Automatic annotation (TrEMBL):
The keyword Signal applies. This is VWDE protein. Residues 236-297 form the VWFD domain. One of its GO terms (molecular function) is signaling receptor binding.
Length: 297
Protein backbone atom coordinates (compact mmCIF):
# COMPACT_ATOMS: atom_id res chain seq x y z
CA UNK A 1 0.00 0.00 0.00
CA UNK A 2 0.99 3.59 -0.47
CA UNK A 3 1.86 5.41 2.71
CA UNK A 4 -0.43 8.08 4.11
CA UNK A 5 -0.09 11.11 1.83
CA UNK A 6 -1.77 13.76 4.02
CA UNK A 7 -4.18 14.69 1.21
CA UNK A 8 -6.34 16.69 3.67
CA UNK A 9 -9.49 17.12 1.53
CA UNK A 10 -11.57 20.26 2.11
CA UNK A 11 -15.02 21.15 0.69
CA UNK A 12 -15.74 24.71 -0.47
CA UNK A 13 -18.79 26.12 -2.30
CA UNK A 14 -18.50 27.63 -5.78
CA UNK A 15 -20.65 28.91 -8.65
CA UNK A 16 -19.87 27.13 -11.93
CA UNK A 17 -21.68 28.53 -15.00
CA UNK A 18 -24.23 30.12 -12.69
CA UNK A 19 -25.03 26.86 -10.87
CA UNK A 20 -24.16 25.94 -7.28
CA UNK A 21 -21.37 23.35 -6.96
CA UNK A 22 -19.27 22.00 -4.13
CA UNK A 23 -15.54 21.58 -4.73
CA UNK A 24 -13.39 18.97 -2.99
CA UNK A 25 -9.75 20.15 -2.96
CA UNK A 26 -6.79 18.16 -1.67
CA UNK A 27 -3.00 18.21 -1.66
CA UNK A 28 -1.36 16.96 -4.85
CA UNK A 29 2.00 15.37 -3.94
CA UNK A 30 4.50 15.04 -6.79
CA UNK A 31 5.11 11.43 -7.69
CA UNK A 32 6.50 9.28 -10.47
CA UNK A 33 4.52 7.73 -11.92
CA UNK A 34 1.85 10.45 -11.37
CA UNK A 35 -0.92 9.70 -8.94
CA UNK A 36 -4.59 9.41 -9.75
CA UNK A 37 -7.35 10.08 -7.26
CA UNK A 38 -10.64 8.44 -6.50
CA UNK A 39 -13.06 10.93 -4.95
CA UNK A 40 -16.22 9.59 -3.33
CA UNK A 41 -18.94 12.09 -2.49
CA UNK A 42 -21.45 11.18 0.22
CA UNK A 43 -24.09 12.87 2.35
CA UNK A 44 -25.33 12.24 5.85
CA UNK A 45 -28.43 10.10 5.45
CA UNK A 46 -29.25 9.50 9.11
CA UNK A 47 -27.11 10.26 12.20
CA UNK A 48 -24.01 8.10 11.90
CA UNK A 49 -24.89 6.78 8.42
CA UNK A 50 -23.80 8.16 5.04
CA UNK A 51 -24.95 7.37 1.52
CA UNK A 52 -22.74 7.63 -1.56
CA UNK A 53 -23.96 10.00 -4.27
CA UNK A 54 -21.03 10.31 -6.70
CA UNK A 55 -17.65 8.72 -7.48
CA UNK A 56 -14.94 10.34 -9.63
CA UNK A 57 -11.53 9.24 -10.84
CA UNK A 58 -9.26 12.13 -11.80
CA UNK A 59 -5.68 13.32 -12.25
CA UNK A 60 -6.65 16.74 -10.89
CA UNK A 61 -6.29 17.94 -7.32
CA UNK A 62 -10.01 18.70 -7.10
CA UNK A 63 -13.46 17.31 -7.87
CA UNK A 64 -16.84 19.01 -8.31
CA UNK A 65 -20.40 17.98 -7.53
CA UNK A 66 -23.50 19.98 -8.42
CA UNK A 67 -26.21 20.82 -5.93
CA UNK A 68 -29.16 20.10 -8.21
CA UNK A 69 -31.89 19.79 -5.58
CA UNK A 70 -32.41 16.09 -6.39
CA UNK A 71 -29.59 13.83 -5.20
CA UNK A 72 -27.87 16.69 -3.37
CA UNK A 73 -30.13 19.24 -1.68
CA UNK A 74 -29.92 22.22 0.60
CA UNK A 75 -29.89 21.05 4.20
CA UNK A 76 -27.52 18.15 3.45
CA UNK A 77 -24.21 17.62 5.25
CA UNK A 78 -21.71 16.56 2.58
CA UNK A 79 -18.39 14.68 2.75
CA UNK A 80 -15.71 13.81 0.21
CA UNK A 81 -13.31 10.90 0.67
CA UNK A 82 -10.11 10.82 -1.39
CA UNK A 83 -7.88 7.83 -2.15
CA UNK A 84 -4.67 8.06 -4.25
CA UNK A 85 -3.31 5.30 -6.49
CA UNK A 86 -0.96 4.84 -9.45
CA UNK A 87 -2.31 4.01 -12.89
CA UNK A 88 0.08 1.14 -13.49
CA UNK A 89 -0.67 -0.43 -10.10
CA UNK A 90 -4.22 0.59 -9.08
CA UNK A 91 -4.19 -1.97 -6.29
CA UNK A 92 -1.53 0.11 -4.51
CA UNK A 93 -3.74 2.66 -2.80
CA UNK A 94 -3.22 5.22 -0.08
CA UNK A 95 -5.36 5.20 3.00
CA UNK A 96 -8.68 6.98 2.27
CA UNK A 97 -8.94 10.46 3.80
CA UNK A 98 -12.30 12.06 4.53
CA UNK A 99 -13.09 15.76 4.68
CA UNK A 100 -14.99 17.40 7.50
CA UNK A 101 -18.73 17.56 6.96
CA UNK A 102 -19.90 20.61 5.00
CA UNK A 103 -23.42 21.80 5.83
CA UNK A 104 -25.01 23.26 2.70
CA UNK A 105 -27.86 25.66 3.43
CA UNK A 106 -29.02 28.37 5.82
CA UNK A 107 -27.38 28.56 9.24
CA UNK A 108 -28.40 30.60 12.26
CA UNK A 109 -25.79 31.88 14.69
CA UNK A 110 -26.28 31.12 17.47
CA UNK A 111 -28.21 27.93 16.69
CA UNK A 112 -30.34 28.41 19.82
CA UNK A 113 -30.99 31.28 22.21
CA UNK A 114 -31.62 31.56 25.94
CA UNK A 115 -32.90 35.03 26.78
CA UNK A 116 -34.75 36.71 29.65
CA UNK A 117 -37.67 39.11 29.99
CA UNK A 118 -35.33 42.04 30.56
CA UNK A 119 -35.86 44.09 27.38
CA UNK A 120 -32.41 43.35 25.98
CA UNK A 121 -31.95 42.82 22.24
CA UNK A 122 -30.09 39.71 21.10
CA UNK A 123 -28.45 39.61 17.68
CA UNK A 124 -29.28 36.64 15.44
CA UNK A 125 -27.14 36.18 12.32
CA UNK A 126 -28.55 34.32 9.32
CA UNK A 127 -26.10 33.13 6.68
CA UNK A 128 -26.03 30.96 3.59
CA UNK A 129 -23.10 28.56 3.33
CA UNK A 130 -23.60 28.24 -0.44
CA UNK A 131 -23.44 31.02 -3.08
CA UNK A 132 -26.68 32.47 -4.41
CA UNK A 133 -27.14 32.12 -8.14
CA UNK A 134 -28.89 34.71 -10.28
CA UNK A 135 -31.55 32.79 -12.23
CA UNK A 136 -31.99 35.59 -14.79
CA UNK A 137 -30.92 39.09 -15.64
CA UNK A 138 -34.02 40.59 -14.05
CA UNK A 139 -33.52 38.83 -10.72
CA UNK A 140 -31.35 40.33 -8.02
CA UNK A 141 -28.83 37.97 -6.49
CA UNK A 142 -30.46 37.51 -3.12
CA UNK A 143 -32.60 35.16 -1.09
CA UNK A 144 -35.58 36.64 0.76
CA UNK A 145 -36.52 34.81 3.93
CA UNK A 146 -39.96 35.18 5.49
CA UNK A 147 -39.60 34.93 9.27
CA UNK A 148 -42.23 33.81 11.76
CA UNK A 149 -42.37 32.80 15.39
CA UNK A 150 -44.31 30.06 17.13
CA UNK A 151 -44.76 29.57 20.85
CA UNK A 152 -44.40 25.96 21.95
CA UNK A 153 -45.80 24.20 24.99
CA UNK A 154 -49.29 23.31 26.11
CA UNK A 155 -49.93 26.69 27.77
CA UNK A 156 -48.94 28.84 24.79
CA UNK A 157 -52.42 29.10 23.30
CA UNK A 158 -54.00 29.80 26.68
CA UNK A 159 -51.54 32.51 27.68
CA UNK A 160 -52.10 34.45 24.48
CA UNK A 161 -49.20 36.90 24.45
CA UNK A 162 -46.19 35.98 22.27
CA UNK A 163 -42.91 35.03 23.89
CA UNK A 164 -40.57 36.84 21.52
CA UNK A 165 -40.51 39.76 19.09
CA UNK A 166 -38.32 40.07 15.97
CA UNK A 167 -36.94 43.32 14.57
CA UNK A 168 -37.92 42.25 11.03
CA UNK A 169 -40.48 39.96 9.39
CA UNK A 170 -38.36 39.53 6.25
CA UNK A 171 -34.62 39.63 5.61
CA UNK A 172 -32.65 39.61 2.36
CA UNK A 173 -29.48 37.54 2.12
CA UNK A 174 -27.39 39.47 -0.41
CA UNK A 175 -24.74 37.60 -2.37
CA UNK A 176 -21.14 38.26 -1.35
CA UNK A 177 -17.81 36.50 -1.96
CA UNK A 178 -17.72 33.28 0.05
CA UNK A 179 -15.48 33.48 3.11
CA UNK A 180 -15.43 31.65 6.43
CA UNK A 181 -18.42 29.45 5.49
CA UNK A 182 -20.62 32.43 4.59
CA UNK A 183 -21.66 33.40 1.06
CA UNK A 184 -24.52 35.74 2.11
CA UNK A 185 -25.65 37.05 5.49
CA UNK A 186 -28.14 39.23 7.33
CA UNK A 187 -28.78 40.10 10.98
CA UNK A 188 -31.83 40.84 13.09
CA UNK A 189 -32.56 41.20 16.78
CA UNK A 190 -34.69 39.02 19.05
CA UNK A 191 -36.27 40.37 22.23
CA UNK A 192 -38.25 38.59 24.90
CA UNK A 193 -41.70 40.07 25.41
CA UNK A 194 -42.20 41.29 28.97
CA UNK A 195 -45.68 39.94 29.67
CA UNK A 196 -46.13 41.03 33.32
CA UNK A 197 -47.11 37.45 34.18
CA UNK A 198 -45.43 34.83 36.36
CA UNK A 199 -45.79 32.10 33.72
CA UNK A 200 -42.47 30.28 34.08
CA UNK A 201 -39.88 29.67 31.39
CA UNK A 202 -41.37 29.37 27.91
CA UNK A 203 -40.04 27.99 24.61
CA UNK A 204 -40.55 29.41 21.13
CA UNK A 205 -39.07 28.79 17.71
CA UNK A 206 -38.14 31.06 14.85
CA UNK A 207 -38.93 29.73 11.38
CA UNK A 208 -37.56 30.96 8.05
CA UNK A 209 -38.95 30.21 4.62
CA UNK A 210 -37.43 31.28 1.27
CA UNK A 211 -39.95 33.21 -0.81
CA UNK A 212 -40.08 34.27 -4.44
CA UNK A 213 -37.56 31.72 -5.74
CA UNK A 214 -38.51 29.64 -8.75
CA UNK A 215 -35.50 27.32 -8.93
CA UNK A 216 -35.80 23.82 -7.49
CA UNK A 217 -32.81 24.18 -5.15
CA UNK A 218 -34.40 26.89 -2.98
CA UNK A 219 -38.09 26.30 -3.64
CA UNK A 220 -38.15 22.93 -1.88
CA UNK A 221 -36.00 24.00 1.08
CA UNK A 222 -37.04 24.92 4.62
CA UNK A 223 -34.19 25.86 6.97
CA UNK A 224 -33.92 24.36 10.41
CA UNK A 225 -35.79 26.24 13.17
CA UNK A 226 -34.10 28.23 15.92
CA UNK A 227 -35.15 27.32 19.46
CA UNK A 228 -35.55 30.26 21.83
CA UNK A 229 -35.97 29.73 25.57
CA UNK A 230 -37.39 32.74 27.43
CA UNK A 231 -36.56 32.89 31.12
CA UNK A 232 -39.36 34.35 33.21
CA UNK A 233 -38.42 37.30 35.40
CA UNK A 234 -40.50 38.78 38.23
CA UNK A 235 -42.22 42.00 37.18
CA UNK A 236 -42.24 45.12 39.35
CA UNK A 237 -45.62 46.49 40.45
CA UNK A 238 -46.74 49.80 41.88
CA UNK A 239 -50.20 50.88 43.01
CA UNK A 240 -52.38 53.91 43.49
CA UNK A 241 -55.79 53.06 45.00
CA UNK A 242 -58.76 54.39 47.03
CA UNK A 243 -58.12 57.89 48.41
CA UNK A 244 -55.16 57.46 46.98
CA UNK A 245 -52.81 55.20 48.89
CA UNK A 246 -49.61 54.68 46.91
CA UNK A 247 -47.24 51.71 47.06
CA UNK A 248 -44.04 52.16 45.04
CA UNK A 249 -42.08 49.51 43.13
CA UNK A 250 -39.79 48.98 46.13
CA UNK A 251 -42.62 48.75 48.65
CA UNK A 252 -42.73 52.26 50.12
CA UNK A 253 -46.24 53.31 51.22
CA UNK A 254 -47.64 56.84 51.46
CA UNK A 255 -50.77 58.87 50.74
CA UNK A 256 -51.50 61.75 48.37
CA UNK A 257 -54.72 63.63 49.20
CA UNK A 258 -54.02 66.48 46.76
CA UNK A 259 -56.24 67.43 43.82
CA UNK A 260 -54.59 67.85 40.41
CA UNK A 261 -52.48 66.02 37.82
CA UNK A 262 -49.34 64.25 39.02
CA UNK A 263 -46.44 62.29 37.59
CA UNK A 264 -46.88 58.83 39.07
CA UNK A 265 -43.96 57.02 37.43
CA UNK A 266 -41.21 57.76 34.91
CA UNK A 267 -38.43 55.55 33.55
CA UNK A 268 -34.91 56.96 33.47
CA UNK A 269 -33.81 54.59 30.68
CA UNK A 270 -36.62 54.70 28.09
CA UNK A 271 -39.63 56.76 26.98
CA UNK A 272 -42.14 55.49 29.54
CA UNK A 273 -44.15 57.48 32.06
CA UNK A 274 -47.52 57.46 33.82
CA UNK A 275 -49.56 60.52 34.78
CA UNK A 276 -52.52 60.37 37.16
CA UNK A 277 -55.34 62.86 37.72
CA UNK A 278 -57.04 63.13 41.13
CA UNK A 279 -60.27 64.95 42.03
CA UNK A 280 -62.21 65.75 45.17
CA UNK A 281 -64.38 62.82 46.14
CA UNK A 282 -64.82 63.45 49.89
CA UNK A 283 -67.51 66.08 49.78
CA UNK A 284 -67.98 68.49 52.70
CA UNK A 285 -67.23 65.96 55.43
CA UNK A 286 -63.60 65.07 54.56
CA UNK A 287 -60.78 66.26 52.32
CA UNK A 288 -60.38 63.15 50.21
CA UNK A 289 -59.04 62.77 46.66
CA UNK A 290 -59.64 59.85 44.27
CA UNK A 291 -58.09 58.79 40.98
CA UNK A 292 -60.25 59.94 38.08
CA UNK A 293 -57.92 59.56 35.08
CA UNK A 294 -54.66 58.07 33.92
CA UNK A 295 -52.40 58.67 30.91
CA UNK A 296 -49.57 56.33 29.92
CA UNK A 297 -46.77 56.83 27.42
Amino acid sequence: KLTSLALQPVITPELVHGRVHLKCSYHHPSSKPPLQYMVVWSRLFTPGKKEQIQRDTTLQSFSYIEMNGINLRLGDTVFCTVTAFTKDAPERQSLPEESEGFYAGIKFLPESLEIAEDGKEHVLTILSTVPIACPGQDDSCNITLQLSTEDLGKNSQLLGSPNIALSACRVDLLRAPCSESSCAAATLTVTAVTDFAHDGNRVSRIQAEPVGRRDLLWRAYTPKDVKVTVRDLPTGNCYSFTDPHIITFDGWRYDNYKIGTFLLCRSVSRAFEVHVRQWDCGGHRSATACNCGVAVR
